[in-house]
Amino acid sequence: MENPTTQALPPTGREELLQRLREAAAASAARGENWPRLLADLLGGVSATWQESAEVCADAAWQARSIGRSALSFLDPPEIARHSDPTTGRALLHLYLNGLRYDFRCRSIEVLFGTLTSSGSLELDCYTQALRAFAPLAQSHSSGYLLMEEVLAQADDHAKTLHVLLHGLWLAHGLSGREEAMLHILGRKAFADRVDPIALFREATALRGLGQYGQALAAIDEAVEHLSPAAVNVHADFVRERSLITAIHEMQHGALDCG
Length: 259
Known about the structure:
By secondary structure, this protein is mainly α.
């Protein structure tokens, strides 16, 4: 049952509450504490939905990893599987899976899901299913498409869920239909305002793969405009993408001129 006090909060109040949880997790991680357990307990205490858990856990896992406090250093699968509170257990799973995702540990994700599904210990929400699809997609396995379509049928326009699928496709190499699949997801309402820098970055990658270099260059330049000045590491990825677009375009034009 949901906590009636938190359930009654208006959307803005709920967002402020979740932001306080992010800040508490960040402070705990900075102190070297078991921040994943703290955050999961807090999310359980406010009866977080799977969407709220996804949004908070994805951000917290990324931030903690950037300071050397990955969730993988604090959690283990048996602890997640045996947790009695479903909301807290779901948050622990979101944190652990994002730790694996950010380290590109795709086989570890597959092993974990094999354990979870065989034991039937946890109900898999839409975001968790997206993290499951991430593993085969990132390894360029076409089996990931079936899992992806199942997620898309349930995800509506939940941006964090869509970003997991885009991340997996972005990592894929030589997967047939990869670029078209990315653009299909990016065409959803969640990205219609074109202010999400990571979405624009993924769009640039997809367009480059299709040989649409002018549009790819416009997308990556727009991505840079919307990127936070604090995102230094991400900015370096954007610069590399822009360099790839221009280098391949110039190389192909040079080859045509020589021909």
